[in-house]
Design a protein that fits this description.
Elements lengths: L1 E6 L2 E3 L5 E9 L1 E12 L6 E6 L5 E3 L7 E6 L4 E6 L8 E11 L5 E4 L3 E5 L2
Parallel strand pairs: 2-11
Antiparallel strand pairs: 1-3, 3-8, 4-5, 4-9, 5-6, 7-8, 9-10, 9-11
């Protein structure tokens, strides 16, 4: 009933920029935290950034000062602006949202993932 669809991934050169988007759709009553996680080959999935419904943000130390998370609550959409990207940012990026579907309980939902590759 709830879907998260990411877009904006791709190939970018070191030092470049990329903007990821994730739109939540379906029978949604409310959304709490939205965030981005990433998983590189052979590594565990890790938090990149998250934003609460009130706008409070948290970032992984590795991306502080380079990435910015934002959301448009009216559109149920979260964004990740990635600046000054590095090869170690290469990973599959997953959108995550804590959603209250209409008539159901709070649940933790994931997108299908979008590949970000940083290479010259």
């Amino acid at each position: 009933q709830v879907q998260l669809v990411e877009s904006g991934g791709g190939l970018v050169q070191p030092g470049g920029s990329l903007r990821l988007s994730c739109a939540a759709s379906g029978s949604i009553f409310s959304i709490n935290t939205m965030g981005w996680y990433r998983q590189a080959p052979g590594k565990q999935r890790e938090l990149v950034a998250r934003i609460s419904s009130g706008g409070s943000t948290n970032y992984a130390d590795s991306v502080k000062g380079r990435f910015t998370i934002s959301r448009d609550s009216a559109k149920n959409t979260v964004y990740l602006q990635m600046n000054n990207v590095k090869p170690e940012d290469t990973a599959v990026y997953y959108c995550n949202a804590v959603v209250l579907p209409t008539g159901l309980l709070w649940g933790n939902y994931w997108g299908q993932g979008t590949q970000v590759t940083v290479s010259s």
